Amino acid sequence: MIIIGREEEKALLDEVLASTTADLVAVFGRRRIGKTFLIRNHLQKNIIFEYSGIHNVETAVQLNGYCRALAKQLNTNIDLPDAADWFAAFDLTSKLVQKKLRRKKVILFLDEFPWMQTPKSNFLAAFEQFWNTWASKQNNLAIILCGSAASWMIQNVVRNKGGLHNRITQKIALQPFTLYETEAFLKSRNVQLNRYQITQLYMAFGGVPHYLNQATPGHSAAQIIEKTCFTKNGFLYNEFTDLYKALFDTADRHFKVIKALAAKPMGLTRNEIIKLCKLQSGGSTTNLLDELSASGFITPYIPIGKKSKDSIYKLTDEYSLFYLKFMAANRDGSKGTWLRLSDTPAWKSWSGFAFESVCSKHIPAIKIALGISGSYSETSIWRSKGNNNNGGAQIDLVINRRDNCINLCEIKFYEAQFSLDKKYAAALQQKKNIFRAETNINKHLFITLITSTGIQPNENSIGLVDQYLNLDQLFVAWQKER
Predict the structure, then answer these.
(1) What is the pLDDT of residues 455-475, one digit of tens each?
(2) In terms of pLDDT, which residue wins out, 180 or 439?
(3) C-alpha distances in Å from residue 199, one per residue of 299, 355, 453
(4) Which terminus of the chain faces fewer neighbouring Cβ atoms within 10 Å, N or C?
(5) What is the CA radius of gyration of the chain?
(6) Cα 277-283-284 angle, rounded to 5 deg
(7) Sign of CA dihedral 87, 93, 94, 95
(8) What is the overall mean pLDDT for the chain?
(9) Res 388: pLDDT
(10) Rounded to a whole number, what is the largest CA-CA distance in the chain?
(11) What fold is seen in the domain 240-324?
């Protein structure tokens, strides 16, 4: 099948195939992001063994499933002796794989690797021994470890301090599709939507391929969302609870943080999260926030002029935000639910924050449009609690450039062209003034307006807004970091 996008990831996998030494590859990313699809379809000719861990089963069940897969794929369905433990299972694996090694690179693909680690199973220790004593010596072998529990993969595989320390030769953190990739993906399925409609769909589903796969030709974004999210047999109707419980053992604590952030679209500091969610201030909370961040659900932003301890956390997973805003309270499955909700003030409020999140994930595209893609810059948000002289203020996106300039970006999602009135123009100028006064930064400040359908210039915008960006400038490809 055709793989949309993923050019950098495919290049890394090609490097693994071309390597003349043993490779241990870690692939991680949130559930439904397309990890398995990428590996199976790009490496199908080289995979000689594949096993996917089973969620929440006892060690004996996991071992039995693994050994049956060995028998079927590597031993032509001949019965194998039962493995007493994972050490015996991997010893058997080395003997069977040895017979299948060829001149070209062959792949062992262990999917949902974190689920194979059951309590008191010594699974990870057995795999470490398997890699260090045998697999690492096979120059025509690569083992790919894949998992949706990104935080577990990072902690136990990528940053392993035991037998796998510094053993990873390549890692792939698979990200959601960009708007550009989403458009290409939908077109590959004959779903023809304009960019405003695609953005609406993206704000509800994010760039998650398996969610976007629910789109059907001939339907509008509203119809696709209605069918997928608000009908009882819709693919995303029950996804929210399943999503978090499949990734986190203590999902209830994660739910609390997600719900608190959903209620505060402008974000919360770590201390505010601890207070609202009644968490302990310490390592457990740090781990919880790291897990949600590594899995792509929340994003920490360091306000300009502040340090990492002052980070503001935002809920940036589009589906979670959409679920908590609209789906959780409208689960009766009645027809026309979304068509009714999408014409309310609540939708307008949500769409503004959702579009901000989309823009924050397309900073490279914004930099290309501003002509600064080749220049170093740092991005952040900024907010002021106000004082006796000024009210509070927030700037959606701050791009702090090395060329002694800063873009203060205002982000607006409108169906029609946006037009500045006197009140909003005055508010923009006030934000600029407060930013200058509170940050004490002497760089030149550009006011940049990012809108969904462009702007209608008038006497209020001329001389105030320096750059205008629209949706078309977000739908571009860019070179991703490897």
Answers:
(1) 888 898 899 999 999 999 999
(2) 180
(3) 20, 8, 11
(4) N
(5) 25
(6) 45
(7) positive
(8) 92
(9) 64
(10) 82
(11) Arc Repressor Mutant, subunit A (1.10.10)
pLDDT grade for 26, boundaries at 50, 70 and 90: very high
Residue 381 buriedness (CB in 10 A; 0-12 / 13-18 / 19+):
buried
Q: Are 451 and 412 in contact (CB under 8 A)?
A: yes
Q: Are strands 312-315 and 393-401 parallel, antiparallel or unpaired?
A: unpaired
3-state helix, strand, coil in the chain (%, to 5): 45, 15, 40
DSSP at 45: T
Would you tell me which CATH number, out of the four given (3.40.630.30, 3.40.50.1820, 3.40.50.1000, 3.40.1350.10), belongs to the domain 362-473? Answer: 3.40.1350.10
Answer yes or no: are the C-beta atoms of 398 and 379 closer than 8 Å. Answer: yes
pTM over 0.90: yes
Lowest mean pLDDT among 124-128, 278-282, 360-364: 278-282
Q: Note the pLDDT tens digit of each residue in 369-394.
A: 999 998 899 998 888 877 666 667 88
Q: Superfamily for 7-173? A: P-loop containing nucleotide triphosphate hydrolases (3.40.50.300)
Q: Which residues does 266 contact at the CB level (< 8 Å), separation at least 6?
A: 312, 314, 383, 394
- What is the C-alpha separation between 48 and 457, in angstroms, rounded? 61
Residue 482 reports pLDDT greater than 70: no
321: which 2 tokens?
Answer: 């935000």
Reported for 51-56, long-range contacts at CB under 8 A and 24+ positions apart, including other chains, are: 51/109, 51/110, 51/111, 52/111, 52/112, 53/110, 53/111, 53/112, 53/113, 53/114, 53/115, 53/116, 54/112, 54/115, 55/112, 55/115, 55/246, 56/115
Give ∠ CA 241-361-426 in degrees, rounded to 5: 110
Average pLDDT on 401-411 reads 94
pLDDT value at position 281? 85
Structure-block tokens of residue 376: 């170093």
CB 216 within 8 A of CB 193: no
